[in-house]
Amino acid sequence: MKSIADLNPSQQEAVKAANGPVMIVAGAGSGKTRVLTYRIAYLISCGVPAHQILALTFTNKAAHEMRSRIVTLVGDSAQSLWMGTFHSVFARILRREADHLGFTKTFTIYDSDDSLGVVKKTMARLGISLQQFNPNMIRARISTAKNQLVLPSDYVARSRDIVDEKTALVYAEYQKSLRKSNALDFDDLLIKPIELFEKNAALLERYQYRFRFLLVDEFQDTNKAQYVMTKLLGGQHRNICIVGDDAQSIYSFRGADIRNILDFERDFPECKQFRLEQNYRSTKTILQAADTLIRFNLNRLNKNLWTENPQGAPVTILDCHDEQDEGQQIVRALQREISSAKLELNDLAILYRTNAQSRALEDALRRSGLPYTIVGGIRFYERKEIKDVISYLRVLVNPQDEESLLRIINVPSRGIGDTSIENIVGYALGKKTTVYAALSEVEQIANLTDRAKRSVVEFRTFLKKFNELAGKLSLSEFSRSMVDELGILRMLKEEGTTEALGRWENIQELLSAISEFASTHSEPTLEQFLEEVALVADIDSWEGTQNAVTLMTLHASKGLEFPVVFVAGMEEGLLPFYSSTIDSSNLEEERRLFYVGITRAERKLYLSHAKVRFRFGDLSYQSESRFLLEIGKENIEYQSGPRRISSLTTGGEGHRQWKSSHTKKTRHAEPKDVDRTPEYESESQEQFEVTRGTIVRHETFGRGKVLALSGSGEGQKAVVQFDDYGIKNLVLRFANLRLG
DNA sequence: GCCGCTCTCTTTTTT
DNA sequence: AGAGAGCGGC
Question: CA–C1' distance A408–C3 (Å)?
Answer without folding.
Answer: 20
